[in-house]
Design goal:
The structure is a single chain. This protein is an alpha/beta fold. It has a domain at 15-158: Rossmann fold (3-Layer(aba) Sandwich), CATH 3.40.50.720. It contains 9 helices and 8 strands. Helix 2 packs across helix 8 and helix 5 (90-100) packs parallel to helix 6. The longest helix is centred in the last third of the chain and has 13 residues, at 163-175.
Length: 213
């Protein structure tokens, strides 16, 4: 897609985010049905989770609870629009989200991790009649779907983001600076440093690595 900027543009990190990570967060929010009338829990403080926070804010959500425990990342999540941060995990984390929502849980849950504990937490924090969207590549074979879940009328959706299909919608807000998803890039490497970039992300030393040839 041809862009109206040069290769030295300060917008480059945010423009690069449109190739994958920002549309993935947007896809998660859209498929969950996030709008100004919905409350949101985002599970995961990685680049996709933070992008989902930004997407939820862009779509008008007023309460966005980010579940994550890495302060540098959750601070960026607050900058992106998170109203609350829950560092606790498991039952403690579920109880905290319930406390923040008057005991109900949130209308929507954006699951951006892909681990079994994350989907279990999602079921714990979604309110009855709510929607869970998952974009974290699932590392588990089964999804909780017992009779108790059935009675709660929970919708489960999500999947791989069609990134190109969202670019036309998201690009204007990136070009005019309304959103700055490129802030998820916190380290830069050259081509020879690609293995080190992967290691830095795997070791949680980097949130998202940008490669400059």
């Amino acid at each position: 897609m041809k862009l109206p900027v040069g290769e030295d543009s300060a917008l480059l990190p945010s423009l690069l985010s449109l190739s994958d990570v920002f549309p993935t967060g947007h896809h998660c929010a859209v498929t969950a049905g996030v709008n100004p009338r919905t409350t949101v829990t985002v599970i995961g403080d990685g680049a996709v989770g933070l992008s989902a926070v930004l997407a939820a804010k862009r779509l008008g959500a007023e309460q966005i609870i980010l579940m994550g425990r890495h302060k540098q990342r959750t601070d960026l999540g607050r900058e992106f629009g998170a109203t609350d941060v829950v560092a606790e995990r498991g039952e403690e984390g579920v109880a905290k989200v319930r406390e923040l929502t008057g005991g109900d849980g949130t209308h929507t849950v954006l699951e951006c991790v892909g681990l079994k504990q994350a989907i279990e937490t999602a079921y714990g924090v979604v309110r009855a009649g709510g929607t869970i969207s998952r974009v974290g590549a699932p590392q588990y074979p089964d999804v909780p779907a017992d009779f108790g879940t059935f009675l709660r009328n929970i919708t489960l959706t999500g999947g791989v983001a069609p990134a190109r299909a969202y670019i036309d919608e998201l690009l204007p807000d990136v070009l005019d600076g309304t959103v700055q998803p490129g802030k998820v890039f916190d380290r830069t490497f050259d081509l020879d440093g690609v293995p080190d970039g992967y290691r830095a992300m795997a070791d949680r030393e980097a949130l998202k690595v940008l490669i400059r040839p």
